[in-house]
Design a protein that fits this description.
Strand content: 15-25%
Number of strands: 8
Strand order of the largest sheet: 5-2-1-6-7-8
Largest sheet: 6 strands, mixed
Number of helices: 7
Order of helices and strands: EHEEEHHHEHEHEHE
Length: 238
């Protein structure tokens, strides 16, 4: 039985994002979802002197209701250099700092849309962690529909039996009566990041970018780290 997860491409995602990827056969990136400012679409957090530091990509202003793959960063502000410097400096003493260098190269050089940048980083981390999954872009599938119906249609497109969802989507999937439209089983992610030793911190800071996990643990341990987590089957409504 095949499993699938669907997520919007976010900037240097956290470990829970890769926990979904690590536990499915097919992973679809909703690169054609609507872009939202001040979200993980263009920002994420790293560790800095024992606290979380938000890195945010400035976005060019060019109209409302744009898709993620239609949005471009404002490179005139020099954000790429700032992000690379922040990551490099804050993880300079991390044991596995060199294992995130390929991500820094992408941040420095990747042109195109915000979606292109995020997807390149996601693909690179998937390769680093050697996760066995097939990744597709929703914009290339020609599958219409909205919300839950699009989820179901994408699963049907690939012949999926089990849909793995982040817990944050539970409310709308159940509100849309998921099981009234499909026999595919629905699982909700139950992921809580385990504590691991972080460089330069007196207490553990969770929900940081995957870069923090890799720089502190290395790709081998980071791979096992993102695989851990439960998925709870949601039963049909009575």
């Amino acid at each position: 039985m095949l499993s699938c997860a669907i997520m919007q491409p976010t900037y240097i995602p956290w470990s829970g994002f890769f926990n979904l990827i690590a536990n499915v056969d097919v992973f679809v990136l909703l690169d054609d979802a609507q872009f939202e400012r001040s979200t993980w679409h263009h920002r994420n957090k790293i560790l800095s002197q024992g606290q979380s530091l938000l890195l945010s990509i400035p976005i060019k202003r060019s109209g409302l209701f744009r898709k993620i793959n239609e949005v471009h960063s404002d490179d005139s502000i020099g954000w790429r250099k700032k992000h690379i410097q922040s990551i490099t400096q804050n993880y300079s003493k991390a044991k596995f700092k060199n294992e995130i260098s390929s991500v820094l190269d992408i941040i420095e050089k990747e042109g195109g849309s915000l979606s292109d940048l995020n997807i390149s980083i996601i693909n690179n981390v998937v390769e680093l962690l050697d996760l066995n999954v097939k990744i597709y872009l929703a914009s290339e599938l020609n599958v219409a529909g909205k919300r839950t119906q699009r989820v179901i249609d994408i699963c049907d497109y690939f012949g999926i039996n089990n849909y793995f969802s982040p817990i944050g989507s539970k409310e709308y999937l159940l509100a849309d009566h998921y099981y009234s439209h499909t026999d595919n089983r629905l699982f909700f992610q139950q992921y809580s990041p385990d504590i691991y030793p972080q460089i330069g911190g007196s207490g553990f800071i969770s929900h940081l970018s995957i870069l923090d996990v890799i720089a502190n643990l290395g790709v081998i341990q980071a791979t096992e780290y993102v695989k851990n987590g439960k998925f709870i089957l949601s039963h049909k409504e009575k």
